[in-house]
Amino acid sequence: MRKVLSIIFGVLMIIGGAYCLFTPDLTFLTLGYVVGVSIIFDGIGRIINWFQIHKEAKVSDWVLASSILSLVFGILLVGSEVMQLAVDAFIVYMAIVWMIAIGVMRIVHATRIKKIRNVAKDIKEDTVIGKHWWVALIMGILLIFCGVTGLFMPGAVASTIGILIGMGIIVSGVNMIHFGTSSWMVL
After folding, report:
1. Four-point Cα dihedral 149, 150, 152, 154, nearest 10
2. Alpha-carbon 63 to chain mean position
3. Residues 2, 182: contact at Cβ < 8 Å?
4. Which DSSP symbol is given to 1?
5. How far apart are CA 12 and CA 90, in angstroms?
6. Cβ-Cβ contacts under 8 Å for 187 (sequence gap 6 or more)
7. Contacts of 12 (CB under 8 A, 6+ apart)
8. How far from 174 is each of 5, 165, 167, 184, CA to CA, in Å?
């Protein structure tokens, strides 16, 4: 039965992932809602956990207060489209900042590799150490370019995130089907 369910859920995930690929903007715009629902589940779980542990040991009331605050914030987030859009915008701009930061780190890494290569060439003329330092440099420059471009085109970044989510769901669906059809899986 688990194999059949795994295959069915895998197919459903592939269909859902394909839908996400064809509607990347809509996919992205649901992230704020998904974050809100996740925060609600987290708050409920931590409240239940607090009451279970509180029976056996002294637990700080601040843990309960933070759990209730999480639950309230999650409910507000799910109920407010404005808050969902704020979370979505935050995700876009964090992705942009991440691209720029990683790009800068790649460039720094490339210059360090080049310095190491120069020292190694002084020791041995035909060294392979750091031979492809320029690849890291180009990747760093491209990441910074994409990040800066994203500042002026945040909608493109949002669509890209939506596409990546769809691709991730499709890969997960294929993985579920693989597990469902694998002969080593226990019935």
Report:
1. 160
2. 27
3. no
4. -
5. 30
6. 1, 2, 3
7. 173
8. 13, 14, 11, 17
Residues in the chain, how many?
A: 187
Alpha carbons 172 and 163: distance in angstroms, whole number: 14
Alpha helical stretches, state H, the chain = 2-22, 24-29, 31-54, 61-79, 81-123, 133-152, 154-181
pTM, two decimal places: 0.75
* Rounded (10°) angle between helices 81-123 and 61-79: 110
**Cα 95 off chain centre by:** 9
pLDDT tens for each residue of 62-118: 999 999 999 999 999 999 999 999 999 999 999 999 999 999 999 999 999 999 888
